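FYI - complex with adenosine-5'-diphosphate, inputs then prediction.
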Amino acid sequence: KDLSTDVLVIGGGGAGLVSAITAAENGANVVLVEKMPAVGGNTIISATGITASDTQLHKDSGISFTVEDHYKRTIETGKGLADEKLVRILVENSSDAYDWLVSLGLSYKIQSAEEPFWIVPTEGHYGAELIKAYQAEAGKHKNLEIKLNTKATELVTEEGKIVGAKVQGQDGEYVIKAKAVILATGGLNNAPDMIAEYNPNYKGVHAEMTTPGPTGDGIKMAVEVGAKLRDMDLFQMRPLSSNGNWYRETIITEEGKGGILVNLDGDRFVDETMKIWDLASEILKQKEGTAYIIFDTDVYDTKDGKKAFDLGKGIKADTIEELAVQLGLDPAKLKDTVDAYNAGQDPFNRKAMGKITAAPFYGVKTLPSSHYTMGGVSINENAQVLKEDGTTIEGLYAAGEIVGGLYGAGRVAGNNTLDDIVFGKIAAKHAIGK
Ligand code: ADP
């Protein structure tokens, strides 16, 4: 029951669907395998919007966000560690990517003059509508077959060239032969053990707001055929999250507001207002890799405070001692910690001290979690996967979160669905010689 096709796409999130559509509309026969019972990946839960520059929307509204602004924002957010050549390609193609989304029937607006980089849907959930539109487009192509519940397990090589993959479907294991394979398996968000292997600071991290599929399969398969990885120690981590949901850090960082973090001994251990991505690893160093966020009514009354309390199934009490008892912390200790903080005593040089004095008081347990995988396989400008020596692995392409190099040490939110489109299209076109 082995199959043969022109292009095999592995993974049915944003990048996989875009590659498959592009190859199919250019006349190639395409098989896309998705290991889950549905397509969508983590793309389907992305909520923000797309980052795009110099789009028709910008021209029409007179709100400016230029390709150069976009480039600068991406490089700076990545602390200079991203691949400049890839970022250049990303930003120069964002307006076309936007036009393509519109051609699929989607409708967007600019978020605001203050945030001119985000293009957000005029209605509906961003990621869900995106995937719905991709699926509808994919369905138009008879030469594109999507096989659900089908997991790629190994790339097949012949004389150093990738010629297909072994897959495990509902009816057993077989090989799909292809002239080119596009890896689009996403990141490591649902693979906390792999994250800790690549960066021991994140030992104990939790999988957060992820669909089940992104478990690093593509990274493993690529490594087996000699792919070069880059930036694998770089992840975007959410310091504050509970029960698989993250909430905004403003509850501990906002100027003059008093949210603090304490460990299971009831001690503060960090400047809570430090860079949020570094904060996660500080929490993970504490006992059980966890901390409690302690705040008062002033913080609770902000939208983010209530949200954290609800999502984290928090505890509320009239006094700090009572709160400690209910959280399982030492009451005298927590009282001392809060009193010291309120008195402005701070060994961690916190920049914006506040006070925790307005009863009732709140405690929420946080378990840091993974949000985005920055690193991944190295690719060139054609989305071809590179070996350690910088040469290409013939027949192998990658697009989407599996790719390293677009983000460096920080991701601009909304660039990720853009890179699915830009590099998904590049991979597909190059794979079929267009
Ligand atoms: P991207 O934005 O890069 O497309 P997503 O997380 O949206 O990333 O999508 C990745 C998709 O790849 C998920 O739907 C996931 O289930 C799928 N996937 C991961 N590993 C495999 C595999 N071994 N075989 C088939 N599909 C896979």
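The longest strand covers residues 172-183. The first helix runs from residue 14 to 25.
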